[in-house]
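INTERNAL AUDIT FORM
Audit reference: QA-55
Scope: verify that the stored structure record matches its stored sequence.
Auditor: D.O.
Record contents follow.
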Amino acid sequence: MNEYKDVEIKVVAPVPWFPFKHKKFVKYAVYANVPRQEEYSGIQIYHPRYPVFPKIGMNIAPLLLAGFTYQLLKKIERKGYNFDLIDAHYFYPDGVAAAILGNWLDKPVMITARGSDINLIPKYYLPRKMIKWAAHRAKKIAAVSESLKCELAGLGLEKSEIEVFRNGVDLNKFRPLNRTRIRQELNLSKFVLLSVGNLIELKGHHLVIQAMNKLPDSVLMIVGEGEMRHKLEKLALQSGVGDRVRFLDNVSQSELCKLYNAADVLVLASSREGMANVLLESLACGTPVIATNVGGNREVVQDREVGLILKTRSVEDIVSGIRSLKSSYPSRDSVRKYAETLSWSEISSSIKKSFSEICMSNEF
């Protein structure tokens, strides 16, 4: 929700074009079912379509995004919404597309790096060239963590010109609830581990499952969907912990809040991260966290009283970390109090200030 009355926002979130809505087409059907236009918390959101081509798609995606979004932006302008700047998130392809649109529409652009767009994609020659071009075209560059800022600087950008706007957390959506009642509803009595994220290798769910062998008094809940679902279920059974691992599909934010409250600890075993929202959300619910030392994780977990940062991304360190946390379990009230310093208020104020600076500089 927009808390600044002097700022008007419209969101353009393109989706890949796909003609069939039947669920048998899985994720592609999801794209087809996205409405062309919707409203969220009073903000208009547009979803123009753009084509995606196998194999060559990665290299031409920014141009396709820009080309199939341009007419929509012109239409929005003709209807009287003469916007002042384009704020883009995720450097590739979105940020590059935004820089192209900025050129075509003569609008200033701000681009924010969020994770794999800088940690992974620049390994490819053409995307790397386009990312660097977009960064030099943008009026302002930002990152969601100090670690990403360093990665951007590694591409040859001036570190002093990169701002850090970490993610915040909605303290109203994610908050302490009646933990005893929720655990009773879910039939939970043991020490509960929670692992949240897409079911893919980099999220590290497999490591948490393997750790369960040495944590006999614990239950693991895994929330997410993805290509490794069957493999992870098989791993749990083969490891002899299938009866203590629960797989849940993607859930709503209100349901996720309940799961954070039911858990004793969130375990994030990722191999890469930008600024992990799940850490912020868990802490806001009063649930301590254990996370790998990647991305912005250490920037979130700065206090031993709210969780632990693992020395290595390994089963052994996950087990050790959980045992250590159990032996000196943090106060859930203290964890929530810490999370209250991580709300969106301060961050959104800083972002608004940057927007104003961009607009003022563009007037001259």
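Auditor finding: record pair retrieved intact. The chain has a mean pLDDT of 93.
Action required: none
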